[in-house]
Amino acid sequence: MKAEWIQPFLQSACNVIEQIVQVRPERGELEMLSWSGAHDLRIQFNLTGQMTANVAFGLNEGAALKMASAMMGGFQLEALDAMGESAISELGNMISGNASTLLYNQGIHVDITPPQLLLIGAAPNCGSTAMTVPLLVRDIGRFDIMMRIG
Fold first, then answer.
1. What angle is formed at CA 118 by the lines to CA 23 and CA 116, rounded to 5 degrees?
2. Which residues of the chain have pLDDT under 50?
3. What does DSSP assign to residue 26?
4. Which of 31, 54, 93, 101 has the largest CB neighbor count within 10 A?
5. What is the C-alpha to C-alpha distance for residues 23 and 8, in angstroms, rounded to an integer?
6. Could you give the 3-state DSSP secondary structure of residue 122?
7. pTM to 2 decimals?
């Protein structure tokens, strides 16, 4: 697994999150965590082409609510309803789309499957590990970028 393959997703996530909440995320240290993770939800998609990988953005419900609220102009969500889920899914679309452009500019041609929002209990426990880099977003929470190659 090449650690530099996660870099376009980190760069894209930092840029998109900064645009949405007006706060630059702080990058944590690279870790190997369970793919199943301890997140309440995650946005998951696959890469095919010159690079084959599973990528996910994991976060807890509180962080998802705050992020979705910021995406809706500050309208405070009390629960992650259909509108909130749509906002979080769109966050995944924006980050993955920008990351695919960055990969293309590096000469790596990939196709990305549509991001899928998985809620707690919906993600199968496959027992594998993923290269994970947390982004810490002030007043929002932790936003994990997870990747497993293969």
1. 80
2. 122-123
3. E
4. 54
5. 19
6. coil
7. 0.89
Confidence (pLDDT) at 132: 93
Residue whose structure tokens are 């992020």: 67
Please count the CA atoms within 13 angstroms of the CA of 56 that sit on its side-chain side. Answer: 26
Query: Any residues with CB less than 8 A from the CB of 101 and at least 6 apart, and which?
Result: none
Please report the pLDDT score of residue 58 as a whole number: 94
HEC profile of 38-91: CCCEEEEEEEEECCCEEEEEEECHHHHHHHHHHHCCCCCCCCCCHHHHHHHHHH
Q: Do 19 and 28 contact (CB within 8 A), yes or no?
A: no
What secondary structure letter does DSSP report for 123?
Answer: S
In angstroms, the CA 87 to CA 129 distance is 28
Phi and psi at 49, nearest 5°, equal 115, -135
Residue 48 contacts residue 110 (beta carbons within 8 Å): yes
Cα-flanking dihedrals φ and ψ of residue 20, to 5°? -75, -50
The CATH class, in words, for 3-149 is alpha beta
